[in-house]
TrEMBL record:
Species this protein is from: Sagittarius serpentarius
One GO-annotated biological process of the protein: adaptive immune response
Intrachain S-S bonds: C135-C170, C136-C154
Single annotated GO MF: lipid binding
Pfam family, one: Tetraspanin
Membrane topology of the entry: Multi-pass membrane protein
InterPro entries: Tetraspanin/Peripherin (IPR018499), Tetraspanin_animals (IPR000301), Tetraspanin_CS (IPR018503), Tetraspanin_EC2_sf (IPR008952)
Gene that specifies this protein: Cd81
The protein's name in its UniProt record: Tetraspanin
GO cellular component: a single term: basolateral plasma membrane
Keyword set, alphabetical order: Adaptive immunity, Cell membrane, Disulfide bond, Immunity, Lipid-binding, Membrane, Transmembrane, Transmembrane helix
PROSITE patterns: TM4_1 (PS00421)
Length: 216
């Protein structure tokens, strides 16, 4: 059940419309940084393997098989080690993920403003960022001023005052988007780790109990 929940959360994060809209963008030959998906794929793999390993442990407990319970314990130790490694990787890269996406956005914004060529897709990339995150410009000042002379780049507001008040800079929105998603991944990882620790303890207790019990 825990594996199914983790798998469900990971698939939801993977196919979330905001992240997929942004991370599938391409600026010329450059792809949007998708390091964020590494953590998602690890969660998907862990969830799927947990479901299989959970079945293995359940069947081993029903059959009172030391071999199956020992295999169950070994698989849990490997999964736990992988998850700890993924957690350390996520903690180290949590700021870098948002930073890379912000740099990608800044490059697209500069190209959209300069309008280097007709084939340049910087304008389309910037519009996708603005519409998906409901923001405009890399900072608040730029976001308030840009619609006055480039209304093709920013979401249209009814008035200048509304634009000034409601415009939110895209750097802030990018930080909020990825910090929120990484927070969910962190919560899921902690829950899985706690469940795994209990599973390892109980499987060893059960395995020792079966070994010490009388054979009929």
């Amino acid at each position: 059940l825990a594996g199914g929940i983790i798998l469900g959360v990971a698939l939801w994060l993977r196919h979330d419309s905001q992240t997929t809209n942004i991370l599938y963008l391409q600026l010329g030959d450059k792809q949007a940084p998708n390091t964020f998906y590494v953590g998602i794929y690890i969660l998907i793999a862990v969830g799927a393997v947990m479901m299989f390993v959970g079945f293995l442990g359940c069947y081993g407990a029903i059959q009172e098989s030391q071999c199956l319970l020992g295999t169950f314990f070994t698989c849990l130790v490997i999964l736990f080690a992988c998850e700890v490694a993924a957690g350390i990787w996520g903690f180290v890269n949590k700021d870098q993920i948002a930073k890379d996406v912000k740099q990608f956005y800044d490059q697209a914004f500069q190209q959209a403003l300069m309008a280097e060529s007709e084939t340049n897709n910087g304008k389309a990339v910037v519009k996708t960022f603005h519409e998906t995150l409901d923001c405009c410009g890399p900072d608040t000042a730029t976001g308030a001023i840009t619609p006055l002379w480039r209304d093709d780049l920013c979401p249209k507001k009814d008035s200048f005052l509304k634009t000034l008040v409601e415009s939110s800079n895209c750097h802030k929105k990018i930080d909020e988007l990825f910090s929120g998603k990484l927070y969910l991944i962190g919560i899921a990882a902690i829950v899985v780790a706690v469940i795994m620790i209990f599973e390892m303890i109980l499987s060893m207790v059960l395995c020792c109990g079966i070994r010490n019990s009388s054979v009929y």
